[in-house]
Design a protein that fits this description.
Elements: H1 2-17, E1 27-31, E2 40-46, E3 51-55, E4 65-68, E5 72-78, H2 87-97, H3 99-104, H4 107-120, H5 123-150, H6 155-197
Antiparallel strand pairs: 1-2, 1-5, 2-3, 3-4
């Protein structure tokens, strides 16, 4: 039974790890390498087991061309088109399904867009970005520290709060014993002085 359960769990994990974004007509793909790297296109037709025809009418550099299957990353977005569809029908299908807008809203697309914008930026724009990041980090740290001082949230503050209670009790007890010793010492000195006078 144990071996069957383990085998079943391994099968489920393997199924989850396998990508379900198969290469098919109408699938949105991202180009991995080359002059069109990180650009998105639609599979207009499949040439053979190794090559596909891509096109994206909204991108002027993504005219209809052949790409190797090893150089594309299939995305989860699909648009309904027929095999070897024309540029006009692909544009209409993309507009109706809004597949490009959905992809642009994803975290991966935003990351690639930021990378492209940084590559095109000037020295002054990169300087402005660096100053803005520093300013944001400074104010974020300041606001967090002010709130953390009122209600401890960070690991250091919470640990200090846990330690302060027992330490205060120990310190109070230790100081009380010290004060008692000092009082006894001075009382003994006064008593010795009185006996000396007599």
């Amino acid at each position: 039974r144990y071996q069957r359960r383990v085998r079943g769990l391994c099968t489920l994990l393997a199924l989850r790890m396998v990508s379900s974004n198969y290469v098919r007509v109408g699938r949105l793909v991202r180009i991995i390498r080359g002059p069109r790297a990180d650009r998105v296109g639609v599979i207009a037709d499949i040439v053979d087991a190794n090559r596909v025809i891509l096109e994206n009418p909204s991108d002027e550099k993504m005219w209809r061309h052949v790409q190797n299957v090893k150089n594309i990353q299939p995305l989860k977005f699909i648009t309904k088109i027929s095999r070897n569809a024309g540029t006009k029908s692909i544009a209409e299908s993309l507009l109706a399904s809004k597949a490009l807008e959905k992809y642009a809203a994803t975290t991966v697309a935003r990351k690639f867009a930021a990378k492209a914008a940084l590559a095109k930026s000037t020295d002054f724009e990169r300087y402005q970005l660096r100053v803005a990041k520093r300013s944001r980090a400074h104010w974020t740290r300041k606001i967090f520290n002010d709130k953390d001082a009122k209600t401890p949230v960070s690991f250091e503050r919470t640990t200090l709060k846990k330690i302060e209670g027992p330490h205060k009790k120990f310190a109070d007890k230790h100081m009380k014993a010290r004060h008692d010793r000092i009082k006894k010492h001075f009382a003994a000195r006064k008593a010795a002085a009185k006996t000396a006078k007599k």
